[in-house]
Protein: WD40 repeat domain-containing protein
Organism: Mesorhizobium liriopis
Amino acid sequence: MPTVAPLDLDGHCVAAGFLQDIPFFALADGTIHRLDNGHRQAQAHDGLLCAAFDGATRLLTGGEDGKVVATRAGGESETLGETPRKWIGAVASGPQGAIAWAAGRNATVRLADGTLKEFAHPRTAEGLAFAPKGLRLAVARYNGATLHFPNAQGKPTELEWGGAHTGVTFSPDGNFLVTAMQENALHGWKLADGKHMRMTGYPAKVKSLSWSAKGRWLASSGAPAAILWPFQGKDGPMGKAPLELGTRGDTMVTAVSCHPSDDIVAIGYADGMVLAARFTDSREVLLRRAGKGAVTTMNWDSGGQRLAFGGEEGQCGVIDISA
């Protein structure tokens, strides 16, 4: 049976995950908590708005203080960027040590040598993602997404679709770009030819996305089940029905995290419950009973044995499935 090591904190958890197998939790109040031979914490921001794990080496965070901070596994932190009087709305990690952040209409890329490249947009830069290969940054914005090559001259690629796009992700093979929208939908583009992919039917906004280990499925929240869109074919999910895993009546799925090697997805719900479900036969295993507040974030460790989770009411912890 899985075992749960709870960590009850005070406030909304923005990101939970692992750095060198040490559990980390980033809270909206700007504190970073880690379980490293005891519970340790440090203040990274005066108000934390976004976070992203940069592989297993750094936790990137952006705050209301206009700072972008990298925290390492030992707890050491470094300010990598600053935009005075502007909030950092999104952060992303990329290849070759590059990172990016969004502040207002601007997206900034910081290369490993400290060089900064700034890109302005007509409207607010809402979401950021790097392509898996090469240095290419996607920016979600109003009416679509923009693709930049920070090391190249020339105009960016504009992908248009009406509406507010709030999050963005590349498929692991780099063939597709998918955005989360304000209107309870996902939208995608096949990058080779710009073909559109419309993924609708959600009763709520999609706030959590996770690609399966081989990139064959994209798991999403926003419904009373985890919705997994198939990306095995050359045209992605068009004309194909998604998998629906972990259906629980009217209880909404609020977070998803695909296992790093197996076709399994961890599913977090609005009532705090966490399940694991297998793609092939929909078999479910209860990982955590319902608690207080919605699950907001989950990430597996590199070996796929432990799952860190965080919630909107500060209920966090680590689930060990090997126990």
In short: Residues 67 and 82 are 4 Å apart (CA to CA).
